[in-house]
Amino acid sequence: MILIIDNSNLFAGGGLQVAASFLRDLKNMNLTDDFHVIQSVNCAGMIGKEVFPNNFTFYNLEKSEEKSKAKRIKSVKKVEDTVKPDCIFTLFGPSYHKSKFPKLVGFAIPFIIYPESPFFKKISFKEKLYYKLLTVIKTYSFKKYSDGLIFETENARKIFTEREHFEKDSFTVGNTLNEIFLKPDQWADFENISLSSLNILFLTANYPHKNMMILPEVIRILKDKFGLKDFKFLITLNKEDLNFPELCNGNIEYLGKVGLEKIPSLYKQSDIVFIPTLLEVFSATYLEAMLMKKPVIASDLGFSRDICRDSAYFCEPINPESYAAGIFKLINDESLRNDLVNKGIENLKRFGTSMDRTNSYLNIIKKLIKDHEN
Predict the structure, then answer these.
(1) CATH of domain 2-176+353-373
(2) Residue 64 has what pLDDT?
(3) What is the value of pTM for the model shown?
């Protein structure tokens, strides 16, 4: 099999981690297939100078090709025409061009799946128009420039295929934990975290849909209504990213960007994991908390219910009082905490390893190739 893996449009976030994990799995499987990997600058940075076998060929795009979609498409099509693959796998799409070869595309764009999200109530009319335009363009591209789609949750697959009358092949391959969580010998300590207070971990990137701006009000309610004083939110952003009122900064530890090898240490030093995000297809943070045996406070939305089932304490998504009440309840109810942790351990069994995910990808790719040969 000759496979092109198109990672040319991966610039940030969890997609980069999935890409690196997929490549390392393929390497460890010692397959004889030929893999041609087209990489963005950041994607290439994820594997660095790691040595791969001779059946891997890498095409690293320049910054100029990242900034220009037309240049990027031209470069990708040039590789396609040269390699003449049996299949193209765009790990996370959409792809914006028609290919001469079967193309499988991964789907992980939440605003297309959940237009009713409370996130859209919090943004301006101009921003809403922007997202609607993006939805039209990306949905068109997913439908026109793919021969099959892979979704991270069954909920997302069902919504998209039914609403868009998508009649081509569609599949669900769940996301999973980053391999670092299964290799404790590679963990590193995150130092200088005080264990004298209640620590609430908020692992987040600096995106509006992550719902960070609810935090000052949650803190105020915890202090004023519930009389809680000795607690800290450990947040993986810098102080200047948020510009919160000074009054709440005494209850926030700004950690900045944290290396993957130190994330398990943060979980170990935390009492509760706070995930108020308003828009996801999938987030591995839920699974990480389950593995590390920490109770989760989550926004009550379709994707979080789909992933967590009954193993999280769900709160009204944009209601700070609901989150504050949930945190206070968890602090004071050991039985509830233990119940959620135990349910999380059980729920985690539904999600395989990265190698399971890679095998699922390969089986789907082989099916697509076979279908297009007939």
Answers:
(1) 3.40.50.2000
(2) 87
(3) 0.89
